[in-house]
Structure prediction request, 177 residues.
Amino acid sequence: MRSAVIFATVLVVGTLAGAAEFTKDGQLVMPAQYREWIYLSTGMGMTYAGGGSTPAHPNFDNVFVNPEGYRGFVSTGKWPDGTMFVLEVRASESEGSINKGGAFQTTRRGIEMETKQNGKWTFYDFGGNNGTGKPFPADSPCNACHSQNGAVDNTFVQFYPTLLPIAKQKGTFKETH
Ligand code: HEC
Prediction:
């Protein structure tokens, strides 16, 4: 009984602190409170293939990092073990309510995640699903694009305006293009 209480407490504290939780078969459990993490930036209709134009209703992607990862980055310019990112994709609309120009965000279309554990980054895809995310193999396109083009240790700090000056100041920023 006592150990059950201790176990439950550790679980709750772990979840609040933003520690990764896995199912027995190695899938990452989607952190329910990721929207209480640190917000980094929003991309709008971002494409990478070239020749792309912004569609009439571009998706937005909102990037969040867990508080421990963020604090480690602020003090060292590097991501500590235990860092987790969520990229939340949302549909957009315009001309709703009083809005006449521009675009605003609506329903969630998908979630992608990335964690750093024992010095290794792993990517996960949740699709539109709220539950668990399957890890991609280490040679996935996710790993390839992130490791080649991410300005700091696999991540796209070049697109996160509050982190970019920190990485430059700490000397961890890599010019990728
Ligand atoms: C062709 C390049 C490319 C590929 C392939 C790619 N990404 Fe990304 N990813 C990006 C860019 C660029 C950003 C920055 C988004 C922004 O600024 O809003 C990003 C951001 C992210 C982030 C936020 C943290 C970070 O690293 O900056 C996560 C999580 C993420 N991607 C997951 C994935 C997953 C999972 C896959 C594979 C299914 C994937 N990505 C494939 C280019 C890529």
Summary: Residues 41, 43, 46, 48, 61, 63, 85, 87, 112-114, 123, 125, 136, 141-142, 145-146, 150, 155-156, 159 surround heme C (CB under 6 Å). The radius of gyration is 18 Å. The chain has a mean pLDDT of 89.
